[in-house]
Amino acid sequence: MAKLVATLASTHHPFYLRATTAPAEEQMPQAPEWRLKVEAYRETLARAQPDILVMVGSDHFHQIFLDNCPQFLIGKAPRYDATFYNEEREFGLPKYMLQGDEAMSAFMHTSLLDQNFDFAFSNELKIDHSIVCPIITLRPQNDLPIVPIYTNIFAPPLPSVRRFYDLGLAIRRAIEGFPSSKRVAAIGTGHLSLELGGPRQFTETGPDPVFDRQAIEWLRAGDVEAILRNVSHESMEKSGNATHGFLNFILMLGVAGAECADYVDNLDLFHTMEAYFTWYPKEPAA
């Protein structure tokens, strides 16, 4: 059976590439530190030596819109065109062609259906920056096939906080049930507190630094019970109008099995808190 070798969760700041590759005199003050943090985080994936990447993101109303908006969707294509025009224009993101793994996508789709998660699927999925950004930061050589999974974190009504955690558990079971000797890393991206287009968008910190610090500690400790007691759709809305991206962090904690994180880092970028987590599966006691 396939082996889960690492679970990673991070924010997906679309300006990372432009911010860290601009001429030195044009870079933001945090750019050198940001680059070093991302390079250290990248090493946590390289150390696991994966063969396949299961990638969890959230479509930003590029192709999943209010006329047909599934809660969860899996890509089943042999390859994926990536990066939309506005992402090239606004963020300077490059276009990519990402290789898919049709066999693993098909197996995971069936497994998740069998576990009572009624996934939509797409054979013509185009990938946006919630998955392109971790390719840039974690696997810039783009040499591994992916299984993309998209979640709805934008269009109410949303699945419950518990549902996202339970989906993470189901994704892990699906990965480990895949009949293959492949080594699989699961990578998911979301947000801590975040405001988009609202009055708290460009402040000295993220819109809710208290939540940010607490969320990092919950994830560090693998404390899913504290998350389930304290986090709700209403509380995330109070922390910032795009804070529901934290649901994808909760999902990835489910994939990790609610363990203490093996790697944790963060960077305050004045209007948002960047955060990086890696979990390696714990070997069962002898």
Give a short summary of the structure.
This protein is α/β, with parallel strands linked by helices. Helix content is 37%, strand content 20%.
Question: What's the topology here?
Answer:
Layout: E1 3-11, H1 16-21, H2 31-46, E2 52-57, E3 72-75, E4 79-82, H3 85-91, E5 96-99, H4 102-114, E6 120-122, H5 129-138, E7 146-151, H6 161-177, E8 183-190, H7 209-221, H8 224-230, H9 233-239, H10 246-256, E9 263-268, E10 273-279
Parallel strand pairs: 1-8, 2-7, 2-8, 3-6
Antiparallel strand pairs: 1-10, 3-7, 4-5, 9-10
Helix pairs in contact: 4-6, 6-10
Kindly describe this structure.
With about 290 residues, this protein is α/β, with parallel strands linked by helices. The protein has one domain: 3-Layer(aba) Sandwich (Protocatechuate 4,5-dioxygenase, Chain B), CATH 3.40.830. It is built from ten helices and ten strands. It has an eight-stranded mixed beta sheet with strand order 6-3-7-2-8-1-10-9, sandwiched between helices. Strands 4-5 form a two-stranded antiparallel ribbon. Strand 9 (about 265-270) and strand 10 (about 275-280) form a beta hairpin. The model has no long low-confidence stretch (mean pLDDT about 95).
